[in-house]
Amino acid sequence: MQNRRILTTVLMPHSSKSVQTHDSINLHWTRKERLKWSIILLSGTCLVYATRTSVPLLVPIIGKEREWSKTDSGTVLSSFFWGYTMTQVLGGYVSDRIGGQRIMWIAAIGWGISTFLLPDIISLFSKDDAYSIETIAFARLINGAFQGMHFPSMISLTSQRLSEGERASFFSLVTSGSALGTLLTGVLGSYVLESYKWDTVFRLLGCISVAWTFVLIYYSLLLNGRTTTNKQSSSNKLPIRELITKAPFWSCVIGHACQNNCFFILLSWMPTYFHDTFPEVKSWIVNMVPWLASVPSIFLGRAISEKLIKTGYSITATRKIIQTTCFTIQAINLLFLAATNSSDKAILYVTLIIAGSGFHNSAIVVNPSDLAPKHSGSVFGFMNTIGAVPGFLGVYFAGHILHLTHSWAVVFLYMFVIEIIGCAVYLIFGSGQAIL
């Protein structure tokens, strides 16, 4: 009887257990594939942020040309995040079901083409046209909706194709493209503006993004050809009711939202701040120097995180140490920034704040993989949806504060208070242990 069972197992390789094991092996990237996909995803994240930050870079120029008020500029800047929040959860859920790479290239086509066409939308409407700001804001909303699918689909893809021990490190690496993208916009955008009009920046970034999309589609087809289907069974549906009762999830969400409040306001308003407060400062310095610090800080945060884990610190302690470092650096320098009247010191403080944000990539950003390894795309989508709220509320509120008070110091103090709240909540309730 025992021999018959062994023979049956050998002759029936399509049993559910055999297929599951075989599929699991097939779904994981080889070492060579990991290298290729790290380059592809790093480049894609770079372009996502390059196209996203092109508008903040050009708003001072476009706003002056179109006679926009600070409220008008704030509306255009914040509208991106209205669309960004709309597709986070759906993008993560569908990615978990049919594969993150498929959702990613669909999204990339959308944000690449909409970036290329944005100058046409702006040029069609002048200040005197009814609903001109609303129409331009809607175009930005569409761009944000497509970009909102990028990160949830990427974390879903990496969770399905990497082992548990590789996910956090890999995702931290590819998300460093956010800093590189912002730096690319600062360098390339400043250079293009020296010789060409502002619309050239959109055209160039749009063309590069569409070209990257074709590369992504090519490798996605190869990936689908090599592996079996990665649809998950119905038993792996995200238990939303259970998730929203967990304090570690909400600490992750609130911490992410508070850090994003600081990051998105600086991302959107920093060129305008220096343009208004220190007009003598060269634009290329403002758009390039602060973002140079974010790249090494991302890798430093990743290295410290890995070192802490190897020396015996728990995942929970490691995530809290790295995230607290992020909040502390940002909060202290926001106070300094609110009090300074020196352009050199302002550049230094902004640089340190952006450097601090790099540690966030090795803490809360990768936390969904800790909390819910089987549902990381969906959980990240939920977290990033609420985390993007400061994108439209915070950025718009900053513009409203400026309109009422004409004081950048008030804006920075408001950001400081939000940072302290986020730090306290994550320190008390944060966790690196699986809750689902």
UniProtKB/TrEMBL annotation:
GO cellular component term of the entry, any: membrane
Membrane topology type: Multi-pass membrane protein
Keyword terms, alphabetized: Membrane, Transmembrane, Transmembrane helix
Cell location: Membrane
GO molecular function: secondary active transmembrane transporter activity
Domain of life: Eukaryota
Residues annotated as transmembrane: 39-62, 103-125, 170-189, 201-222, 243-269, 281-300, 321-340, 346-367, 379-402, 408-429
Domain Major facilitator superfamily (MFS) profile: 37-434
Gene Ontology biological-process entries: ATP transport
PANTHER family: SOLUTE CARRIER FAMILY 17, VOLTAGE-GATED PURINE NUCLEOTIDE UNIPORTER SLC17A9
Protein name per Swiss-Prot or TrEMBL: Major facilitator superfamily (MFS) profile domain-containing protein
